[in-house]
Structures are given as structure tokens and as C-alpha cells.
What we know:
Layout: H1 6-39, H2 41-120, E1 125-133, E2 141-144, E3 157-159, E4 164-171, E5 176-180, E6 187-193, E7 197-203, E8 210-216, E9 226-229, E10 241-249, E11 256-263, E12 272-276, H3 291-294, H4 296-301, H5 305-309, H6 314-318, H7 322-327
Antiparallel strand pairs: 1-2, 1-12, 2-5, 3-4, 3-12, 4-5, 6-7, 6-9, 7-8, 8-11, 9-10, 10-11
Amino acid sequence: MNGPGTGDRGSSSDTVGGTARLMFYSLLAISLMALDYRGQYVERIRAVASHLVEPMFWAVDLPFSTAERIASSWRDRTETGNRISELELEVTRARARLGRLADLESENAQLRRLLETARRTDQQFIAAELASVDLDPFAHRILVRRGRGDGIRPGMPVIDSTGVLGQVDQVLFGMSQVILISDPDHALPVQVLPSGERTIAYGSGSLDRLRLTDLPMNAQVDPGDLVVTSGIGGRFPPGLPVARIGSIQRQPGQAFATALAAPLSAMDRNRFVLILKTAAPAAEDAPAPTEAETDPSSATDSPTTEDAAAPATQGDIESRTPDEDEES
């Protein structure tokens, strides 16, 4: 059992021991600080510790940085793909607008040429838009958006801004079929300038070639000569440009020379055409013959229109007798 004063001595010794330790640690700290100030030992230790800890830092940070890079790359790829899709859509729209503008420009230029052609000709015309093209390679026909309701009749000539295209073949109420001059079944009376030779231009089945097979062997026809309508037949007015002579063949022993001509009209590139209102009436629309025309006896007994309209000559007046004058 401790006596009185024993606790006081123990607490005093603890206080002294604590003070001694404090002074020791303070002197140690001051010494270390002085040594570090002079020799930079702490910095060296810190550098070595940093080198030792750095691999552990990278090992810990590697999964997180890798995941962040993958996520960022995925986001960039998604944004880039969306941007590429938007740009492709814009390019497609721009090309569509550009194609539409080019189409409108071409259509406008063709309409201007048709307008100039209409101004140059003294014929009445009807403008028509192309509706469809016959896909049969042996039947060169097109369909236009004009018909009987617009005053279209079979046989009317069809032209474009550069030359003769064909003629109306069949007529519906709102549509008409046009046979092109290149059709093998089409024949067009033409004249070659400047020689003036008249012949027939036949379709060859090719859009870029017509056949002139009835030329005399001595015809003055040369490559480059202009072929125009002759007006014979009454359907096509004379002077419409048709083609240009390309080549001439004069085979020995043949009765006629053969020429190939290139059509001037753009038969495969037209969107609008002009239909001339100058076609001759069809045979079924011709008036029926009168009784005088069908009866030969009545035709010989009655005077013709020219005889009735012809004035009397002086010999006829002098040959009259006084009795005839009195009777008259």
C-alpha cells in the first residue's frame, strides 16, 4: 500500500520524463531541419519515394484512364458518324437541288429556242409536252400531252427548235401519238439544198440516220447539204429543216444513188415540241362527190366551172346574127 506522497512523486517523475522527451524530439527536429537545410536530405528522400510510388500510381490510375479514353473515343466516333450522316444528307439534297436547277435551266433553254422558232415561222402552232416514249426499238413513236380537245388532228407536223420531228399519227382526247421521221414506216417528201433535188426521206430505224434512196445518179448532192421539206403532199409546209447529208453512195449499175442524212431535230432529248396546224384533211374527211361528178353523161353535157366563168371573145359576139340579137 502506497504511503502518503507517493502519488505526488510519481506524477512529478512523469512530468519530468515528458519534458525530457519533448526537449529531445525538439532538438532532433531542429537538427534534422538544419541538416536538411544544408544537405537537402528530405528532398532526396522525397524524390526516391516518388520514384518508388510512381509505378503504383500508374497501376492504380491505368484502369480509370483507359475507361475514360475508350468512352471519349466512342463519343467522338458517334458524333463523327452522326456528322458524316448529316453532311451526306446535305450533299444529297444539294445535288438534288443542283440537278433540279440544271433540269430547269435545260427546260428553260429549250422553251426559249421553241419560242424563237415559233417567232420565225408564220404557221399557227400548239406547244405540247412530252408524256412518254415508246420502248419498242422498231417503232419510233412518242406521246404528247395534247389531243382532240386541243384541236390536234392526224397528220399535223411536229417540230422542235432545230428541225422536223415527225407528225401526229393517232389522236385521243387529251393525248396524241407522234410518229418520228426516223421510224421505218415513215416517209417524208424533201428537197436537197442548194441543188433543189426532190426525193423521199425514209426512216432507217435509227435516231441519227435517214435514208434518201431515190436520188438520180447525176444529182448534185454533196455531204453537208441541207435537207428541207418540199411541201409536196400538203402535210408539211415547204422549207422546214429536216437533216444534213452525211454520205452519198453511187453504186455502178444502180438506177439511183443513195444518201444518208443526219436529222437535225433532237428526237431523244426533247421535252417540249411544236405541233403545226397545217395538216391536210384526211381522206375520210373529204367531201362526198356530187351527182354530176359521178355521172359521166351529165358531166359532158353541162359546162364546167371554168367554161362558165370564162369571158366571151370578140369572135363569138361578131358571129351572132341579127335574128339571134332580136331573140336575145
